[in-house]
Amino acid sequence: MATLQLNNIVKDFGGTQVIKGVDLEVKDREFVVFVGPSGCGKSTLMRMIAGLESTTSGDISIDGQRINDVGPADRGLAMVFQSYALYPHMTVEDNMGFSLRLAKVKKAERREKVLAAARILQLEPLLDRKPRALSGGQRQRVAIGRAIVRNPSIFLFDEPLSNLDAALRVQMRIELARLHEELDATMIYVTHDQIEAMTMADKIVVLQDGLVEQIGSPMELYHHPCNRFVAGFIGSPKMNFLDVEVREASSEGIDVALPGGDCRVPVDGSGISAGDTLTLGIRPEHLKLDDEGPLTGKIVVIERLGGVTSLYLEHGDSEWILVADGDVAHRVHDQVRFSFDPTCGHLFKGDGEALNHLHRHPLVDIDRKQNRVSSASDGQ
Amino acid sequence: MNPTMTKKLLLTLLAWGIALIVFFPIFWMVLTGFKTEGEAVATPPSLFFEPTLAGYNEVMARADYLKFALNSIVISFGSTLLALIVAIPSAYSMAFLPTKRTQGTLLWMLSTKMLPPVGVLMPVYLLFRDMGLLDSQLGLTIVYMLMNLPIVVWMLYTFFKDIPKDILEAGRMDGAGTLQEVLYLLLPLTLPGIASTGLLSVILSWNEAFWSLNLTTSDAAPLTAFIASFSSPEGLFWAKLSAASTLAIAPILIFGWMTQKQMVRGLTFGAVK
C-alpha cells in the first residue's frame, strides 16, 4: 500500500549530472518499469529511491512523506539486486530472516514469516542450504523471498533477471508477474530489456541520458511513442525509419512521398508544410509482403524463427526489416514487393518528436486490472 | 624420461634445496642447543654427538623463561588485538567510502615502514620515559600496534575491497546500521583474511627485537630480550644461546605450523599474493 512521487530529482556525481530532473508518480500497487539503454540512469534512479544514493536536489516522497533524508532501512522498501547479493555465510532461512533478526523479532515469529515467504516461492526444501549450493534461479527466488519477508511498502527490482539464462528468464518473468498479483504490492523494476518491460509493466518509464523520454502503459508506448527514441527502443525488431518528403499537410493527415507513390498517414499535420522532410516510422510487423505493394527491396538476410520470419531488405540506401509469416518461401537475394497500412505509420519531425496520431489505439488505456477482469470473463 | 618429467624433477629438487637452505640455520640451532659448549664451537662441527640438556638446564636456572614467554604472549597478542580494533574501522572507511586521497593515504602509511626505526628511537624513548611507559607491557604493546598498523590496515583493506558492495547494500536495505553491517556481514565474510592478518601481526610482534631491547629491561621484557641476555656479558656461549633461542622460537614456530593452512589461505585470498 504505497505511492511514490519523484519531484524534479537530480543526481550530480562530482559535476556530472546523471539524473537531470525526473518527475514521476507511482500509484498504489502499480508495477512500474524503468527501461532504457545502459548508462541512462535507470539504476541510479532506483538506488536514489532506495536511499543507497543521495539525492542532489528534488523531493522523493512515499505516501506524501518526504523521505530524502531517511536512511535506506527506514524507508520501508526492499530491493532485489542484479547480483542477488545473498549473504554467502548464512543459510537460506537466515538470509531471508536477516531483516527480522536486525529488527529483534523473536525466533519463532521470524521462522513463521520466513516459512510463509518460502511457501510462496517454493523454497521450503532449500531453507537449510547456503547460497553457494543453489542454482541461479533458486538464488533469485531467495533474493525475492528476502524482500517479501520484509513486507515492504514498495519492492525494488534492479535488473533481477539479467544473470539468468534465457529459458529461466522467461519462467521467472511469469513468476514475477504472478507474484505481483499475489502480493498486490507496489513494485518498481529496472531493466534494459524492453520485452521484460512490455510484458510485466503497468507503466513504463523510458529513460535516456538521465531524462524521462516517455511514461505510459506498454500499449501506449508501442502505439503512440512520443519521439523517435522511444519508437526505436520499444518493439522488437526495431522500427523502420525512412526520411520522406511532405506533399501535403493538414490537421486531418499528412501525405508523404514514397518510392511507389504517395500515402496518407493519419497524424495531426498542423504546423507542417509541403516540402518539409519528416521521418516515417513503420514497425516490422506492420509491413506485409504484397505483390502489388508500392515498396520493393532485395532480401539480404532471412531469420527464420519458426512462427515468424524476419526479412532484412535493402532498397537503394534504405534498409527495412519485415516480419512475415513463418512459412514464407523467399530466399536471400529475392526481390520482393511489400506494403503497409498507413494508419500504423508514425511520423517524426527533424528533432525526433512524434506527430500526434488522430486516433488513439483502443488498448492504450487498459491497465493490468482491467486486463485481468477481461481475461477472467473470457475464460467463462 | 620425457621433458615434463625432467622439469618436474628439477623443480622438486630445487624446492627441496631452497627449503633445506632456509631451514638449516634453525636445524643447526636446535642441534647446537643439545651440545656441550665444547662441542658447540668444535671445528669441524660434529654432526653426531651425545645430546645433553646441560644448556637448557643452565638457561632455565639463570632466567625465568615463563615470565619472558608470558610477556611475549601478552604483548604480541595484545598489540595484534589493538591493531585490529583500530584497523578494521580504518580499512572499512577506506574500502567502502573512498575519497580521492585514500590511495595516497594507504601508500603513505606503508611508506612509514621504510623509515629505519632507529631514526625515531630517541623521541620515542623520551616520550616513553616521560609517560612512564618504559619497561611496561602497555608501552611495548602500543609500539608494536603502531609498527604493524600499516600492514594490518593494508591487508584488511584488500580483503574488504573483495567483498561485493551489493551484499553490504542489501544489508543496509535490510536495516543494518554500520556496526551491524560490520559485525554480521563484513567480519564473518572476511574472517579468513582477518585471521591471517592477525597471525602475521602476532608473528611480526613476537620476532621484533629492536624496540623490545631498547624499551624494556626486565619487567616487560619478551623472549627476544631473553635471547639477548645470553649473548653479552661473559662472551658467547653458543650452546646456551642456542638453547635459549630454541626456547624462544618454539612457541611461535608451533603456532605458525598449526595455523599455516589458515595463513596460506588468507595470504593468497586477497591481493597480497
Question: How would you describe this protein?
Answer:
The complex is a heterodimer of chains A (380) and B (273). Helices cover 26% and strands 33% of the residues of chain A. With 380 residues, chain A is an alpha+beta fold. Chain A folds into 2 domains: 4-230, Rossmann fold; 231-348, Nucleic acid-binding proteins (OB fold (Dihydrolipoamide Acetyltransferase, E2P)), CATH 2.40.50. Chain A has a 6-stranded mixed beta sheet, with helices on both faces. In chain A, helix 3 (107-120) packs across helix 4 (136-149). The two termini of chain A are 31 Å apart. Chain B has 14 helices and no strands. The two termini of chain B are 34 Å apart. Chain B has one domain (65-267): MetI-like (MetI-like fold), CATH 1.10.3720.10. Chain B is mostly helical. The interface between A and B is medium-sized, with 23 and 17 residues.
Tell me the distance between the termini of chain A.
31 Å
- The gross shape of chain A turns out to be globular
Greatest interface (CB-CB under 8 A), with counts per chain: A-B, 23 and 17 residues
pLDDT averaged residue by residue of chain A: 90
Assign the CATH topology of chain B: MetI-like fold
* Mean pLDDT over the full residue set of chain B: 88
Shape field of chain B: globular
- Going by CATH, what is the homologous superfamily of chain B? MetI-like
**Helix segment count of chain A?**
9
Taking Cα atoms only, what radius of gyration of chain B do you get, to the nearest Å? 23 Å
What share of the residues of chain B lie within helices? Answer: over 70%
- Describe the strand arrangement of the main beta sheet of chain A, using strand numbers: 6-7-8-3-9-10
User: What would you give as the CATH superfamily of the largest domain in chain A?
Assistant: P-loop containing nucleotide triphosphate hydrolases
Order of helices and strands of chain B: HHHHHHHHHHHHHH
